Amino acid sequence: ARPAARQTNPATGLPEPTMRPTITLADRQRDIQERIRREREAKRAQEEPITPAPQLQRLQPAEISGPKVVRVEAPDHVPTPRKRRENERPEQQRIPTGPLARGGAGVRTAADEESDKSKARTGPGKSLSLRRRGGEGRRGEALEKLREFTEADLIARRDALNAARANRSLLDRQMERTANKGKGFRALSPAQRDGPVQVSEPITVKSLSADLGIKSGVLQKALMTKHGIFATANQGLAAAQAEALAMEFGIEIQVARQKTAEQRLAERFAEIEAGLDASQRTTRPPIVTILGHVDHGKTSLLDKIRSTNVVAGEAGGITQHVAAFDVMATRDGKEKPITFIDTPGHQAFTAMRARGAQVTDIVVLVVDAAQGVQPQTVESINHARAASVPIVVAMNKIDRDDANPDKVLGELAAQNLNPAEWGGDTEVVRTSATTGQGIENLLEILDLQAELMDLKAAKSSPARGRVIEARMTQGLGPVATVLVQQGTLKVGDVILAGMAFGRVRALQKAAGEMVKEAPPSLPVLVSGFTEVPSAGNAFYVLPTMDEAEAVAEERRDENRREELSVRNRVSLETLFETVEEGKIKTINLIIKGDVQGSVETLNATIGEQNTTEVRVKVIHSAVGAINESDVELADASEAVIIGFHVGIDESARHQAEQRGVEIRTYNVIYEIFDDIKKALSGMLEPEVKEVYQGTAEVRATFKASRLGTIAGCYVTDGHVMRNHMVRLTRDGAVVVQDLQIASLRRLKEDVREVKAGLECGINLLNYDDVKEADKLEFYTRQTVARTL
Question: Is this prediction's pTM over 0.70?
Answer without folding.
Answer: no
